[in-house]
Design goal:
Chain lengths: 148, 339, 286
């Protein structure tokens, strides 16, 4: 789609207890995956405000991944359930304002799923790479109209 | 004063020429909500019978967001670039209540500090005013020293003679030069043409004595007069943002990325609760009544004390658009009747 | 049935409330404005007609009205917001005295062509008879009619490509001047400090630039998702003429289709965002 030199920037918001530990496991197990992802660790997926995603896009992200504990595994019992409900709404809103909701990814990765983390990241990176840079949103960044 | 006749067709030709020269033309949008750039000259419409656009024309000299500078930084250096105010612009069909506002704002923007952004923009702006035949319950231009036919602030002033014909007066030097430049489009006329048209304009029904308003405000700072307004005022900034004379702004720095960004000058409004909030947490205007008192005082007292002008042109926008229909005209009329 | 003035007088005479929030005439014919009445002597200027557009519930959460017993004149849609405020624990049922209006629809706007049309929210109204009230009052039927243009626009937007939708909203949001009238008029925007006003860190850019306007309007719409009761005050008060109800209505539709939830109907049921279901969809989660 775009030129082959394009390397997407991907921001991953992950929960401390499952996905972050899962990613850690991938690292200590010396598994290799694409290095396009910038990880931000939060206590729980319930703490991940949809504004973070907007902010990530404002800061030049081409794709965003949100990842946490599997249903039933939340360290705080129900944070991921609340988050899931929020994401159902937020995806529809993104879609309605014309922001490509398929640039926002969600996954459940547990502390033992180092391999799954590697697969998710590789898949997300490849998908976003094929979509090309998120120019739609990025062009908003510097534009303003003085008048009219 | 020189008076000319120009047809609507020729005005469109004029607009076409200006667009081709790269001048930005602005006029009220078709739904009359705001001023928009005219893209095609045949879409030019002048409507003296329309209500003032919901949002005023002040953006021409004082935009809602205005870059002050751009910056870039790396590990050891910071690079600054000044923002350049915009190109030439012509404002078409401004009501006298819009045109007069630039002169009023000019005083505060050139009081101690000379605001180069405002000045440059105003310098690059030609104002084509239009005698106004609209009035409603919210208009009160005649009570603040203006009228539906006042030329204050206009470089060229138009009076509609018929649907297809306008009388044009060159009011300022800038206006005279402009007419000279496009003299093939302006036919010589005289005031006998526009006189009957102007005399037929009655102006708004609302009348109050702004001197009496100021007299009362001079003596009554601590008052519960504004409490009922404070009861229902929602504290949005609509009134200030649609106002042609409100000029408060806020300065913020914004990043594009870690190493790049801009400094912006954005509209601000005294009706916001955060407007006067101190870093300590103390807020001297801690309720909406006090904030509304500030709005009335600034317009009808402080600005007169400092600059000998009323900070209001009586366009009525703030009241017409107010979510809870707080009508500044009726409030100051009431104040005028208190003394 | 009693008229609004005698009902209001009764409220004070029987000490049912400390203050009453109602409507009174505004300067120009055909307009009303909100008013707060504090005694039986002040009730004679209250009015109730199809020009009573404001949703007065927005005053219930104000600092100065907290802890008071408040009587409020409320149409069905306004009562929905009161119900939602109770469900979200912002006000207590026993502190509001609801004068419910049996409403036949209000005007789309105070002036112009739209003043002859019925407001869009009234077309599919399911609470013309108040669903929660301490007493009720009739509003005259002025036989207003009109078409639901926004519903058609939502359908049209849904059928567009993402690019086209983005372009549509880019043009709309560009008009935003960040006066925050939408927020202030909204009965459910009751945060003491709005996220848009926080500057450490700055989440929503304060500039009315393209970026700042997108962020603000998305955040506003999201914070009302599953909560908005569709009074359309945000759209009515927007001086820039942004069709904000499109966003809210879309999210109301999503809440209904995804969760079968309708806000503002029951004060006892859990709110959409305040709860969860183990069976919530997750086909989009890897």
């Amino acid at each position: 789609m775009s030129d082959s030199s394009f390397e997407p920037k991907i921001v991953a918001f992950v929960c401390n207890w499952c996905t972050y530990t899962g990613a850690d496991l991938a690292g200590t197990s010396r598994m290799k995956y694409q290095s396009n992802v910038r990880m931000i660790r939060l206590p729980c997926t319930g703490r991940i405000d949809p504004m973070f995603i907007i902010k990530a896009f404002e800061s030049g992200a081409d794709g965003v991944l949100v990842s946490g504990c599997h249903p039933g595994d939340c360290h705080y019992t129900a944070g991921n359930y609340h988050a899931r409900r929020r994401w159902i709404l937020f995806r529809q809103l993104l879609k309605f304002v014309g922001i490509d909701e398929s640039r926002v990814f969600f996954s459940w990765v547990s502390a033992s799923e180092g391999k799954k983390w590697v697969d998710v990241i590789n898949e997300v990176t490849d998908t976003v790479r094929s979509k090309g840079p998120f120019t739609n949103y990025q062009k908003l960044n510097k534009e303003f109209t003085i008048n009219g | 004063m020189e008076e000319y006749i120009i047809s609507l067709e020729d005005l469109k030709k004029l607009a076409d020429n200006l667009i081709k020269e790269g001048t930005d033309l602005f006029l009220p949008s078709p739904d009359n909500s705001r001023f928009v750039r005219l893209k095609k000259a045949d879409e030019l419409k002048l409507a003296p019978e329309a209500r003032p656009s919901d949002i005023s024309a002040k953006q021409a000299a004082f935009p809602k967001c205005d870059p002050v500078l751009f910056y870039k930084r790396d590990k050891s250096t910071v690079e600054l670039k000044d923002a350049e105010p915009s190109a030439n612009q012509v404002l078409f069909g401004l009501k006298p209540c819009d045109a007069a506002a630039f002169g009023i704002m000019n005083k505060v923007f050139n009081w101690d500090y000379k605001d180069n952004f405002f000045n440059k923009r105003l310098e690059n702006t030609l104002v084509i005013g239009l005698a106004c035949t609209y009035s409603d319950d919210y208009c009160f231009c005649t009570s603040v020293g203006l009228s539906p036919v006042s030329e204050t602030g206009s470089d060229i002033f138009l009076v509609r003679l018929s649907d297809a014909q306008f009388a044009a007066r060159a009011v300022t030097d800038k206006g005279i030069q402009f007419v000279k430049k496009y003299s093939q489009l302006f036919a010589k006329g005289d005031s006998s043409k526009s006189k009957p048209a102007l005399e037929s304009i009655k102006g708004p029904a609302r009348k109050f004595d702004s001197k009496k308003v100021k007299d009362w405000l001079d003596k009554n700072f601590e008052t519960d007069f504004f409490n009922p307004v404070g009861d229902t005022c929602l504290g949005c900034g609509q009134c200030a943002f649609v106002c042609p004379t409100c000029h408060c702004f806020d300065i913020v720095d914004e990043d594009y990325s870690y190493s790049e960004g801009r400094r912006m000058k954005n509209w601000d409004a005294c009706q916001f609760s955060l407007f006067t909030l101190h870093a300590s947490g103390h807020n001297p205007r801690d309720n909406q009544a006090k904030r509304y008192r500030q709005r009335v005082n600034h317009k009808f007292k402080y600005y007169i004390d400092r600059f000998k002008e009323i900070l209001c042109t009586g366009c009525g926008r703030c009241s017409r658009g107010c979510p809870v229909t707080i009508d500044i005209g009726s409030i100051v009329t009431k104040i005028g009747n208190l003394t | 049935m009693a008229d609004i003035i005698s009902i209001a007088r009764g409220v004070f005479e029987n000490k049912k409330a400390d203050i009453l929030i109602g409507y009174t005439k505004a300067t120009s014919e055909g307009r009303t404005r909100p008013v707060i009445v504090r005694s039986a002597d002040e009730v004679q200027n209250l009015v109730l007609n199809s020009s009573c557009l404001n949703n007065l519930a927005t005053y219930l959460t104000r600092k100065e009205n907290k802890g008071k017993k408040v009587a409020i004149v409320a149409k069905g849609c306004d009562i929905k917001s009161i119900v939602q405020l109770i469900a979200e624990s912002q006000i207590k049922r026993e502190n509001v005295y609801i004068i419910g209006v049996k409403c036949n629809g209000v005007k789309r706007s105070f002036e112009g062509e739209d003043s002859k049309k019925i407001a869009e929210k009234c077309l599919n109204c399911n609470v013309r008879t108040p669903h929660l009230a301490d007493e009720t009052v009739d509003m005259s039927d002025e036989g207003l009619t009109g078409k639901d243009e926004k519903a058609e626009l939502i359908e049209k937007l849904d059928s567009m490509s993402a690019e086209e939708r983005f372009a549509f909203w880019e043009e709309q949001f560009e008009k935003c001047i960040k006066c925050y009238a939408c927020r202030q008029a909204c009965p459910l925007c009751y945060c003491e400090r709005c996220i848009a006003d926080k500057s450490m860190p700055r989440w929503v850019e304060s500039s009315p630039t393209k970026r700042g306007n997108f962020a603000w309007n998305i955040v506003r719409a999201f914070h009302l998702s599953g909560r908005c009761i569709g009074c359309n005050e945000c759209e009515r008060v927007c001086p820039a003429g942004i069709p904000l109800s499109l966003l809210n209505r879309k999210m109301v539709m999503v809440a209904k289709s995804e969760f079968g939830y309708e806000s503002g109907m029951s004060a006892d049921a859990p709110t959409l965002i305040g709860t969860y279901d183990l069976k919530d969809k997750e086909e989009f989660i890897k």
